[in-house]
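Entry for the shared binder. Reason: the reviewer on the internal report wants the predicted structure included alongside the sequence.
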Amino acid sequence: TSEMLKLLQDADTVSLLVFNDRLQWAATGARIGAARNDLLKRVAGLFPGGGTALYDATAAAYDQLERNRLPDTIAAVVVLSDGAATNSKNTNYQALLKAIATDFETRNTRVFTIGYGKDAKADVLTAIADATAAKFYAGSADDIREVFKDISTFF
């Protein structure tokens, strides 16, 4: 995540939703130029642990962008997860896919997904990305910078 924050331009707007079994907004609608250092410190303190509220986090991030989207901007969610949804209150996977599906006109926020870990559920993360005409990536510590660089080309 720190690599993605470093790749964004100062004028870009970013929101950061940290999740395990709970969702916690670290930033919403912040200009990256002013927030980058604080967000990098926040990300440096993160570590994997707890459950995974994947569906809840994806829906919350998507909804936040759709509600606060500025005209003529590119809106995208980047989800870094193992693909498990062990602690989502919303357990209806199909409902999530329907809720985030793009119509290419009024609802066109993309959800890029990165499967992290050897047991990442690529099928779940691919379906989430596909619903929004985005892309799934398999990521590891060795190639995560390249994955973020590729995602940043969509902006």
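Summary line for the report: The CA atoms of residues 76 and 145 lie 18 Å apart.
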